Amino acid sequence: MLERRSALASAKPYVSAALKIAERPGFTLTQFAGLDGDFENKLSAVIGTLPDKVARAQVNGERTIFRIGPAQFWIVGPETDDAASRLAGLCAVTPLSSSRVRIALEGAPARAVLARLMPVDFDAAVFTLGNAALTGLHHTPVTVHCTGADAFDIYAMRTFALDVWDAVTDAAREFAASR
User: Fold this and answer.
1) How far from the centroid of its chain's Cα atoms is residue 88's Cα?
2) Which tens digit of pLDDT belongs to each residue from 49-65?
3) Is the pLDDT of residue 37 over 90?
4) What is 14-173's CATH number, 3.40.50.2000, 3.30.1360.120, 3.40.50.2300, 1.10.510.10?
5) pLDDT tens digit string along 21-31?
6) Residue 77: CB partners within 8 Å, gap ≥ 6?
7) Which residues contact 58 (CB under 8 A, 6 or more apart)?
8) How far is CA 17 from CA 64, 116, 172, 175, in A?
9) What pLDDT digit, counting tens, does each position of 127-149 carry?
10) CA-wise closest residue to 110 among 19, 17, 11, 13
């Protein structure tokens, strides 16, 4: 059986006294979409509470649910998540795990680093816990999710993972006391 290989396997780790940037592997990412009027009720019966508006995420146990559009959701769960099989036939199910990487930023400078790269207001009073944004970083779309006061996950397409990694770590160089 083939093993999943990280698109960031050759990336150099980034750790400073103020900021940590690391890949967060070991997840499933699945998109769910439905057209019937009862879709959201069916979805919430399986995965729990749904975010009430686009650009918000809801944490339900080990799953994080993003509302990415009208009647469209991303569900990020553990590698053993069975949501896709439980919802098959009830809605459109698109597995995205193999096409994305997740990069975590954590530390006081995280907002400043992201603000250099993306046209999003990362002010702590605006981009708060649970906020998510589909935005661009140079030439690629990314989804950024606020997971804590100074903590974020970036979901990037596997094809551009190293470019995104390099852009983020380059923007963070100012905060590297030692690497």
Assistant:
1) 23
2) 999 999 999 999 999 99
3) no
4) 3.30.1360.120
5) 999 999 999 99
6) 27, 28, 30, 62, 63, 64, 83
7) 48, 49, 50, 51, 64, 65, 130
8) 29, 20, 12, 8
9) 999 999 999 998 899 999 999 99
10) 19
| Closest of 136, 101, 123 to residue 26, by C-alpha | 101
Distance of CA 29 to the CA centre of its chain: 9
Given a cut of 50, whether residue 72 has pLDDT beyond it is yes
Domain residue ranges in the chain: 14-173
Pairing of strands 100-106, 72-78: unpaired
Report the distance separating Cα 63 and Cα 124, nearest Å: 24
Average pLDDT over residues 103-126: 97
Task: Over range 76-102, report the average pLDDT.
Answer: 94
Integer CA distances (angstroms), 136 to 111, 129, 159, in order: 16, 20, 14
